[in-house]
Amino acid sequence: MNQYQKEQVTTLRGSGETCVNIAANLGLSVNTVKSFCRRNNINTNAKTKTTTANTAESITCPQCGNKITQIDGRKPKKFCTDDCRVQWWNSHSEKVKRKALYSFKCACCGQSFTAYGNAKRRYCSHSCYCNARFNRKAATV
Predict the structure, then answer these.
(1) CA-to-CA distance for 21 and 59, rounded, in angstroms?
(2) Is the domain of 32 the same as that of 55?
(3) Is residue 95 part of a domain?
(4) Which residues lie below 8 Å from residue 41, measured CB to CB, with a gap of 6+?
(5) What's residue 137's pLDDT?
(6) Are 89 and 96 in contact (CB under 8 A)?
(7) 21 domain residue, yes or no
(8) What percent of the chain is predicted at pLDDT more than 70?
(9) Which residue in 102, 89, 31 sits closest to 62, CA to CA?
(10) Nearest Cα to 90, choosing from 55, 63, 124, 129?
């Protein structure tokens, strides 16, 4: 993107033009225009939204209660760290919407079981797999 195009993007975006129209007029990729606007904090005056990051409302982490600092132009954070996010989801596993839950009958012992995310599973446990595959009991550790 040359200097003329940068000035045009700034002018057109400030007047309320969409990124798609700007890209078509200047012969640029839409993503190029969007990323330039994002990097240089160029927003239209008509479409400025008030988000929780812009309000005085403070957001706290649901796991530890620490205050979360939000960054303008980015998706709002819900947790202060990845560790807090993992701990919270591990302790609230009932809130996970499991869409890939499959029911099976074990090919070795005949017991019914469910598995998440694996539609081709055949055995309920590692010991059943070893019994069926090697015709012996699995070594217990």
Answers:
(1) 36
(2) no
(3) no
(4) 72, 73
(5) 58
(6) yes
(7) yes
(8) 84
(9) 89
(10) 63
Give CA–CA dist 38/32, Å, rounded.
10
Residue 89 covered by a domain: no
70-123 tens-digit pLDDT = 888 888 899 999 999 999 988 988 887 777 888 999 999 999 998 888 888 999
Residue 128 is assigned to a structural domain of this protein? yes
Residue 128 is predicted with a pLDDT of 92
Nearest Cα residue to 33 out of 8, 65, 15, 62: 8
Identify whether the C-beta of residue 68 lies closer than 8 Å to the C-beta of residue 61: yes
Can you give the residue range of the structural domain that contains 33? 3-39
Which residues, at least 6 apart from 77, have a Cβ–Cβ distance to it below 8 Å?
Answer: 59, 68, 70
